[in-house]
Amino acid sequence: MYNNTNYLYFLVLLILQLGTVTNGSSQPTINVIDAYAKKELIPMSDLVESVSYVVLESDSLRCGPANRVYANDSLIFVISFRQIAVFERSTGKFLRTIGSLGKGPNEFSSTISSMPFDDQMDIIRAKGWDYSSLEYNSLGSLNKKVNPKKISLGSIACLNESIYVTSPSKYGYEKESRLVLFDSNDKIIRKLPRHQKQEDYTTKIVGYKGDEAWFYKLKNELFFKETFNDTLWGITPNSIYPRYIFELGKLQPPKELGYTYDFKKLRNFIEISNLFESPELLFFTIKHHKLSFFAIYDKTKKSLRICDNADDSLFGLKNDIDNSFPFLPFSITTNNDLVGFIEAYELIEWKKNNPDLARKLPQKLKKVREYDNPIVVIATLKE
């Protein structure tokens, strides 16, 4: 049974933390609004020492659309809306798919955006039906179906081997809870209430955002950032704690949009997503007016740099390592290799627009066809 004493303790602790944030005390602030006004071309060599390319096999399976790419020491995972594909990192050889779209055994309803791959736990996660979550391993086996009763699972992550954390849907079970912690037997351990009273916006809903909280890990620590909150939080079994506050000024999305999901209005504000982190750097993506910009926060220097688009059609770091196309990191490995990709058609277009540089590309990139699978880019961070 849920422990009311723990719940009250957790609530009081949260109120104290939020009071600290509201009063603007000692929590580090990342001044996004100033850096956004001073976007710059950022060379890869500022943070990367080497880069390599993996051309994924295309004859056995075609990936996409809406690809996201992750990697570990030996494998590459390409996750699209309806598909999870696994390739060999050293050769790009296609190995297997994980699960499949459908309502049959081991099948999922969709993939997810927030932390679909947990290398430490060897979990590849997808959405099941009826608000469940499916956990596969890298060999493609379904290890577990996570389906706690009366929780409309939103974004979900493993805090450790025995505790899960989810950010429930605002319009399902546990809508009054900001986070819910539950164990491996789907038993609720703790609930974290929303710090603001839920208002009734049901007549104003114009869209839906399934993964409002973005979870990610650094080593053994779990963090999350919500679209409509200005704070990056750390999570422990007993509390959450603020790490950074993102200063967005008038471009901070208003609370109401967190309930109506009016994406046309949201475009007028800055949305921060796709966060990941190395011991020295925090990376994230800024979306504003349908445009995306890559951001790098140096935790030691306490400085933020935001990439201006290095190319009219591509955005990311200016590739001065081998003078090829811009590099947009999408994820990071546990060994601190940045992982990104470029779609084959984007590479073809870049080669047309940059014929002199295209002639200097590695031979394997010159052979890429327009409808081939993405080319994965792996960059080693400087120590």
TrEMBL record:
<dbReference type="Pfam" id="PF17170">
    <property type="entry name" value="DUF5128"/>
</dbReference>
<protein>
    <submittedName>
        <fullName>6-bladed beta-propeller protein</fullName>
    </submittedName>
</protein>
